Amino acid sequence: MTQSTAPTSRTGKPRRRHRRIAAVLLVGYSMLWIFGGCADMFLLHPTTGTIATDGATRMEIPVAGTTPVEVYARRVNVSPGKEPQAFILVFDGNGGRAENAVFWGDDLARQHAVEVWSMNYPGFGGSPGKARLSGIAASALATYDAIKQKAGDRPVVVWGASMGSTAALHIAAHRPVVGLVLTNPPPLRQLILGRYGWWNLWILALPVSSGIPSDLDNVANAATVKCPAVIVTAQDDFTVPAGYQQKVIDAYAGPKQLVPLPNAGHNTPAGQSNPTAWYAAIDWLWTQVGVGN
Predict the structure, then answer these.
(1) Is the Cβ–Cβ distance between 164 and 143 less than 8 Å?
(2) How many domains does one find in the chain?
(3) Is position 34 within any domain?
(4) I need a labelling partner for 171 at 20 to 30 A (CA). Which of 42, 119, 151, 156 fits?
(5) pTM for this one?
């Protein structure tokens, strides 16, 4: 009688290999979670190349406990020897630059004499330091304090586009801002988990969302802000879909004028997509902050 032999497992080696791969992935994921930087890498896209800024003045604003930030300023509709009626502080999105955003004030100023400032986040443009989400709030407050010191009793309107809305709303939640313009404001944590989590089974979305500072919570900050605001919302925004923007809009506690942009994407200018609503809302805002026609 022939003695039977137990069959040799052909799946042993592949299983061990899969376990090793899973272990490596788990360690890598844990390191990513523990040591952070994931949110900065995915949400900030800094550039440092030279951009022409004809007519704009460069300055550096000190930030307590860290490196200064680069700010550009220029005047719009201000006659020689005269002073501006109001000031505008602009924050661009996560890949934008102050050298470009400082020129947005031309559209917002309308006929008013204004001085426009725009800040490069740490690690962007000529702002020293590393590009980190944790650096946005403090540098934004320092820049607002500097422009407000110059403005005195004159109004300062803060304009934040996309990621820049987190800086604008953080300022408005901690300073007596008189007016805001928000363009396609994202609720960052909800957006990352709800919009960008499914395709990676939340393996990336969880550490990215957990790395977003509470200072940049647009929904929480919006619920505390009472100043008048113009909120621009692109209806075909693939980056920050309108439904997510609506979470910030619904939370906003102050008077607001909505400017919907039908068939518009994330970077479509409001004055191009819906000029009637845009300019009517801006005129309303200037009246609200005490700058007459």
Answers:
(1) no
(2) 1
(3) no
(4) 42
(5) 0.86
